[in-house]
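Long-time lurker, first post.

We've been arguing in lab meeting about whether magnesium ion would sit comfortably in this protein at all. Half the group thinks yes, half thinks no, and nobody has a model to point at. So I'm putting the question to the forum: if I give you the sequence and the SMILES, can you give me back a predicted structure of the complex? Inputs are below. Any interpretation is welcome too.
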Amino acid sequence: MKEPINSQPEEKPLLKLKNVSKSFPGVKALDGVELDVRAGEVHALLGENGAGKSTLMKILAGIYQPDGGEVILEDQLVHMSSPLEAREHGVLLIHQELSLVPDMTVAENVFLGNIPRFANIFVNNRHLNERCGEILTRLNCKFKPTEKLGNLSIANQQMVEIARALVFQPKVVVFDEPTASLTDYEKVVLFGVIRELKESGTAIVYISHRMDEIFELSDRISVLRDGTYQGTFYTRQTNEDEVTQRMIGRDLDADIEHQPPELGAKALQVSGLGIEGLYSDISFDVHAGEVVGFYGLVGAGRTEIMETIFGLRKPDSGSVQINGQNLAINSPSDAIDHGLGLVPESRKEQGLVLGMSCKDNTTLANISEFTKLGWIDTSAERKVFEEYMDKLRIKCPGWEYSTLNLSGGNQQKVVIGKWLSTSPKILILDEPTRGIDVGSKSEIHHLIRELAKTGLAVIVVSSEMPEVLTVSDRIIAMYDGRITRCFDRGEVTEDTLIRAITGQTER
Ligand SMILES: Nc1ncnc2c1ncn2[C@@H]1O[C@H](COP(=O)(O)OP(=O)(O)OP(=O)(O)O)[C@@H](O)[C@H]1O
Ligand SMILES: [Mg+2]
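Top reply:
Settle the argument with this. Predicted structure of the protein with magnesium ion, as tokens:
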């Protein structure tokens, strides 16, 4: 294997992190980490879930204090004791988990901590909204500066975070998994913004689990593994295999060998389902033992259909049959009683109670199973959590650990474990590997195939083509609230699939 390069002496870094360490109770999150970032470069930070990427960046942004090490900005040793101080030094972090205030307007959020004041006292709202409007136009956003942030979709809220980067004219901007909830179009806009910042000499740190993005955008790549620094590579001189090797310390599991499914009875049959304005005329079925992929662009209506099946929305028309029976599913608890499980798209809002322990989150959906005469059987709960911690490789010091303190990807794994522990007959996974590193991703794909083999009916909603192609026996393509085509595994090609999700084919 090639030895990674370090920065060349003639290229002076704008930012240097030296020998940075940080421990949390039970976890050494960072151990002597190095990073240097130059002006005008996009520097990708790569590592498995829980490797320490967000922690390192939170230290840089003054959110956490390091136990040891130095932050050097333009040759000066700096102490960032708060996010405000970091911003005064020109460092801005765009968070993985949104950090905006839902009750304030878009404009107020954009200027958060930096509100232009009139005569230093009054906030000039008109001025605020005007300046915000200009930035939103630049970002091609369709919503208004005066809109309440909480009313926006997650993707639009993410755009508001990004708008903040343009207000501060920072020296260093960190993007921590910015594209996880963006549509392809918004992603193009974001990449434009990043290139603009780069041209203007800003140093950019970019964190993502999507290799295609990293290779498209970055100039150099630094790798972390288990809180340790694994080296820096020039993007043009390396490749996915090499950095993945560095990142997970082994080669990626071999590709899934696809065996045709052993189909059981029809587990789920959806006929003519529709909700005015969201989707219409949705009919499909899923057999026991089968994985059906739902592929389409963000906004095609896939999530809404799954939420309807799970009792979170009321359909205007159509019916859902489970095991050949018409059942009334009016709430998620009806759905769970009938053997349905849903791993939702947004783990923070729908999937986890962040203040609760890993164990309690895992058993939350079927707590009655663990309750005997009013007592909760904690050791049984623990066993279940530990089983999934192992199966899903959840990086966490123990069952009592609060999910609030887990890395983003590990939170997602706890949500998956929670639903698997309900032993569902029909399992719906909505964007199951969003924010999950490449190593764990392939493990989750294996797990999905295994689950189907044991007789589960599985639906996977995904916006990632390689993912649907890897896991599905059949693929249902959606465009604008309708099913455009249904492919058998053997007949699908990338080209026909793309045409189907962009409305270029008729049923
Ligand atoms: N506030 C905290 N309290 C306790 N432990 C924490 C805290 N923040 C992070 N950790 C732990 O530190 C380790 C590194 O987490 P970090 O969030 O930096 O990972 P990451 O590389 O960003 O992962 P991901 O790709 O999943 O976002 C994890 O084991 C995590 O559980
Ligand atoms: Mg992170």
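For your lab meeting: The mean pLDDT is 86. The pocket of adenosine-5'-triphosphate (ligand 1) is lined by residues 24, 27, 29, 47, 49-55, 96, 395, 405-410, 437 (CB under 6 Å). Whichever side wins, do check it experimentally.
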